[in-house]
Automatic annotation (TrEMBL):
Segments passing through the bilayer: none
Highest taxon listed in the record's lineage: Bacteria
Leader sequence segment: 1-20
Keywords: Hydrolase, Metal-binding, Metalloprotease, Protease, Signal, Zinc
Cofactor: Zn(2+)
Species: Sphingomonas limnosediminicola
Record's protein name: M48 family metalloprotease
PROSITE patterns attached to this UniProt entry: LYSM (PS51782)
């Protein structure tokens, strides 16, 4: 029954002209919650970009949001560009829209940006989150899930973990995705954009997904759950193209390609060295001078405050570094207290002490009884310097202990100043094609060791036989300069 009602609502919204929409006032409780948790979301998901690019995104958002039917859109809707290395955009019911710089790097013009923003505003305007009645609840997996949300003594992080749990379940139904596509198309046309931006962006995302599937197993990078909230399908792309054609506006309206490309010039792609770099099975943080390697077959997800590692025999998280006055033993006890969040008392064996690559360390393992059975929770802490302690938390099946992660905990070391200086960010560089340029010659300039041609073609929506017209602009990924 609920699905039938949703389909009727979809049809009604699709038919109503933008000017005739009834104003939708956002739920004050949703607004208050979004305002309260915005700073924590931004901090956990890479931080917010500032400056001209952020102002540009905000301007496009306000232009598109003005036609959404949301009451007082200039005050109710907020647009944030995240310094995140995953392609995604998402929104929360309280009127906050987030778009990552990695998704912007994949776009080709402003009409694609307008569609992405319009799609997210459509979720808000159609009240999709509450139509689904608080999303689908997912089990946290007891302490296995708690590792992803360990507060580690930071109240701001504790707040964001609650919000990330919501983002992890913020996946909409197929019908809701179609409806948000339709609404986004309507808003962007009303704002004067060419509706081609919708199918073009969906096609770009599809190409990127196909490339990532080809590279799977070589990057050791795990896409966070919050970045997988918009399932793609060939049918969705086809429908977006059909809807764009049906408007009679396809091929007309603003695309502002040169303006858009000027804004993405210099934007960081992939990991920001200031937050650490995942390169195959290794994680390196040039500013903190940290290096470690994950076991074969394990994947990493890099957050602002922690690196999460997962594989067939367990999960782990690397974090810490804040000021702590006390011994390694005291630190380990505090990590266990925060890990369990007071849900149960653990019998924690006294830590054993060792030295790993010249760094003093201590570790212990506690057996934990969960709803999923017995698991081992292990903590190893490293005295990095007198003011900083780093640690791994590891969760494995009962009886495994640190076992599967032994190579990882033993690989942690300080990198040299020369190693740190060699790490540079990858950035977008827009070039104007000259006579004689080929996809092969341009691809050789891509700042990657492998899949250079495939990455170049995907980034620009080209194929190996595409003719390159002199004067046209294309994007490259090159090495930039570290921010100091």
């Amino acid at each position: 029954m609920r699905r039938a009602l949703l389909l009727l609502a979809t049809a009604a919204i699709a038919i109503a002209p933008a000017a005739a929409q009834q104003l939708r006032y956002l739920n004050p409780q949703d607004v208050a919650e979004a305002q309260r948790e915005h700073a924590a979301i931004v901090q956990e998901l890479g931080g917010a970009e500032t400056g001209p690019r952020a102002a540009y995104v905000d301007g496009v958002g306000r232009r598109v949001g003005a036609f959404s039917g949301v009451a007082n859109p200039g005050q109710a809707l907020h647009f944030t560009t995240l310094n995140s290395p995953v392609e995604n955009a998402f929104s929360v019911p309280g009127g906050y829209v987030y778009i990552t710089r990695q998704l912007m790097a994949l776009m080709d013009d402003e009409s694609e940006l307008a569609f992405a923003i319009g799609h997210e505003v459509g979720h808000i305007a159609a009240n999709h989150a509450h139509v689904r009645e608080q999303y689908e609840q997912r089990s946290s997996g007891g302490i296995l899930g708690s590792i992803l949300g360990a507060v580690f003594g930071n109240t701001i992080l504790g707040q964001v973990i609650q919000q990330r749990a919501k983002l992890d379940t913020l996946s909409f139904s197929r019908e809701q995705e179609y409806q948000a596509d339709q609404l986004g198309t309507r808003y962007m046309i009303a704002a004067g954009y060419d509706p081609v931006g919708g199918p073009e962006l969906l096609a770009a995302l599809s190409r990127q997904s196909a490339l990532e599937a080809r590279m799977q197993g070589r990057t050791n990078r795990q896409t966070p759950e919050w970045a997988s909230t918009h399932p793609l399908s060939e049918n969705r792309m086809q429908r977006a193209l059909v809807d764009a054609r049906a408007t009679g506006k396809l091929g007309t309206g603003l695309r502002n390609r040169d303006t858009f490309l000027a804004q993405v010039e210099g934007v960081t792609v992939d990991d920001d060295p200031a937050q650490g770099i995942i390169d195959g099975p290794t994680f390196t943080h040039p500013d903190l001078r940290i290096f470690f390697t994950v076991p074969t077959g394990y994947l990493m997800s890099n957050g602002t405050r922690a690196v999460t590692i997962s594989g067939s025999a367990g999960k782990a998280q690397f974090g810490g570094g804040g000021g702590f006055r006390g011994s390694l033993d005291d630190y380990i006890l505090r990590v266990f207290q925060e890990l369990t969040r007071g849900q149960q008392q653990l019998s924690i064996p006294p830590p054993q002490h060792t030295s790993i690559n010249g760094v003093a360390a201590a570790y212990t393992t506690a057996r934990v009884n969960t709803s999923s059975g017995l698991v081992d929770a292990s903590v190893i802490a490293y005295q990095w310097d007198p003011q900083r302690i780093y640690h791994f938390v590891m969760i494995t099946p009962g009886g495994y202990g640190i076992g599967p992660f032994a190579p990882m905990v033993n690989s942690l070391r300080r990198i040299t100043p020369q190693e740190a200086a060699a790490i540079r960010p990858r950035v977008i560089h827009v070039v104007t094609l000259e006579r004689g340029d080929t996809v092969q010659s341009l691809a050789r300039q891509m700042a990657y060791r492998d899949f250079k041609l495939e990455r170049f073609l995907t980034l620009n929506g080209l194929d190996a036989n595409s003719a390159l017209a002199p004067g046209r602009k294309v994007k490259l990924v090159v090495f930039g300069q570290r921010r100091t």
